[in-house]
C-alpha cells in the first residue's frame, strides 16, 4: 500500500506540474511578446544648448511613430527627436526643427533650406544621387509583410497587389512576381491593406504595429523579410558637418546610448501591442500549442487509465498476497501449536515417568535421554523461528574468514551423520576441490548445508539414500570461484504445486500430523534467504515419491594457506574445579537455580549477583582476591550486563579489570556476540546452558 501511495503522489505531482506548465507556457510566451520582461532604458534627452548658440536647421519626417510624432499633450517626441537633441547637444548648436511629410522634408533639403534631413531611408532611389552625404545609420528596422489573412510562404505574393513606399528599392530587391503599388508613407499602406484595396504591404514593422494599434486594425504579420537602415542626410557640400555628425554617431554607438534610445522606444511599442494583435501574429504557435495540449491530455488520460488499471491489479495482487501470507501464518500457527506441543508433551510425559522410576536406573537413563532428544527438537523449532525473524529484520552479518573448505565440510557432515544412521539412511559424499582454501562465513555455509541435508533426512524413509556433492567452478576472475553443492535424495518428494511455495515462510506440504515429521516449514525459507544474502542461487527439482535434488551455487574469494585462521588450542587438561570461584550474574530465580546447580555439580564455587550494579559492587568488594570468571547475563534490572562489564573494565586495578567475563544470554545471534565482545566481554554462550560448552569456555580463560 505504501508503494501505491508513493506512485499516486508522484503521478499527482506530474499531473499538477503538467497542468501548471500547460497554463504557464502560453502565458509566458504572450508576456514575452508583450515585452513585460523587457526593461526599457530610462532615458530623457533634452536640449542643453544656450539660447544664444548658433542654430542648425533640421527636417524630420512626420507620421512615423515611434520615430517622430506629437504625443497626446501636443509635444514633439520619438526616437529620432531624442537622437537629434543628443546630437545637437554634442554639436553645441540650437536645433531648429521642422516636421513634415516625407516629400515636404525632402523638398526643403533639395532647396538647401535645412542643414540635415533625419530618418532618410538609405535605400530610397531619389537619395542615391546624394549617397555621399549620408551619415552612419542611426536606426535599423525590420521590413515585414502584412495582410488580412495568413499566407503559407512568400510565394503567395505572386500576382498579388503589394504596397511599398515610393522611391524604395523594396520592389527591386524582392522580385516576387507581384504588382507593386507605391505609397508616400507606411500609414497609408497599412490602412489600405486593412480596407482590402491591396492584398499585402511591405512596411517598417515598428511603424506598422503603431498604426495597427492606434487605429484598431486587424492584420497579420506574416513574415519579416529583411532590414533597412535610416540615417541623416547632410546638405550637399557640408562635408565638415557630415564628419562631425559621423564622429558623434560613432561615439553614441560605441557607448551604447544610440542602442538604448532605440530600445526605449521599441520596447515601449512592444508593450503597447494589443493582446489581439499578438495572438493574430502568432496564431500558428497558439494553434499548434492547443493541438499539443490535446495530445498531452490524451497521453495523460491513457497513462492514468493504465495506472488505474495497474493499481487495481496491484491492489488485488497485494490482497491476494496478504491473504496468502495470512493463510500461511494461520496454517503455521496450527502446525506450530502441534509441533511445539509434541516435544513439550514428551518432556512432561517422560519427566513424570522418570519420577515414578527413580529407583530403576536403566529406565531413568532411558527417560532422561528421550527428554534430551525432545528438548533438542524443541530448541530446533524455536531457533528456526528466531533465525527467520532475524533474517527478515535485516540483521544478518557476513563474516568471511579464510577457511579450509574440506575441513568445514567434514565438520558439518559430522553433525548430520548421526541422524542419517539412526534412520538407516546411506549418506554418500562426492567432493571435487581444486582450491581448498576460500573466504567464507563458515557458520552460514554450515547452516545452509545442515538445513538442506536435515530436510532430506526428514523426508527420506528408512533404507533410503542421500548423495551430497560439492565442486568448484571458475569465477569471474582468477581470484574468485563458485562453490556448487547439491543434495539429492530418494525420499517422498514434492508436488509441482508446492515447488512454487517451497521457499515461502511457514510453508509445509503436509503437517506433522499427516507426515509424522516434526518441523516448522522454515528450513528452506531460511536457506533461500541465506543464499540470496550471500549473492548465490538455489534451484530445486522434485517429484512426488521419487525424491528431491537441491542445488546451491555461491561465489567465494580464493584464499592462500598462510591466510587461514589459526584456531586456538584448547586446554584439554583436567582442572580441579573446587579451587575456582565464579560470579553468576542473573536476575531470574529459575535460571540461577539451574545454572548454579550445573556449575556446582562439577565442583565450581558459585556466588550470585541479581543485577549488574550488585555484580560491580561484589567485584570491587573482593579486592585482589578476584573471581576466576564472571558469567554475565545481559538483560537485567537496575544495570544491564553490558554496562556492568564496562564499569568492571574501567576499575583502576588491572588484575580486577581483566577478570574474564563470559556472556550467558538468550540473545544468541551473531550481532549479539559482536555486541558482547565490543562491550568488553571475552566470550558469548547462549542459553540454555550446556555444561560441556561452559567447561570448554572456562578452560580458555581461567587462570
Key traits:
22 helices, 20% strand, seven-stranded mixed sheet, eight-stranded mixed sheet, alpha/beta, 703 residues
How is the secondary structure organized here?
Elements: H1 2-34, E1 55-61, E2 69-70, E3 76-77, H2 79-91, E4 94-100, H3 102-110, E5 116-121, E6 139-147, E7 161-165, H4 170-173, E8 179-183, H5 186-195, E9 200-204, H6 205-214, E10 220-234, H7 239-255, H8 257-271, H9 275-281, H10 283-356, H11 361-392, E11 401-404, H12 405-422, E12 426-432, E13 437-440, H13 442-458, E14 465-474, E15 480-489, H14 496-499, H15 512-515, H16 523-533, E16 537-543, E17 547-558, E18 581-585, H17 589-601, E19 605-609, H18 612-622, E20 629-632, H19 641-649, H20 654-657, E21 661-665, H21 670-678, E22 683-686, H22 691-701
Parallel strand pairs: 1-4, 1-5, 7-8, 7-9, 12-14, 18-19, 18-20, 20-21, 21-22
Antiparallel strand pairs: 2-3, 5-10, 6-9, 6-10, 11-13, 13-17, 14-15, 15-17, 16-17
Helix pairs in contact: 1-10, 5-6, 10-11, 11-16, 12-13, 13-16, 18-19
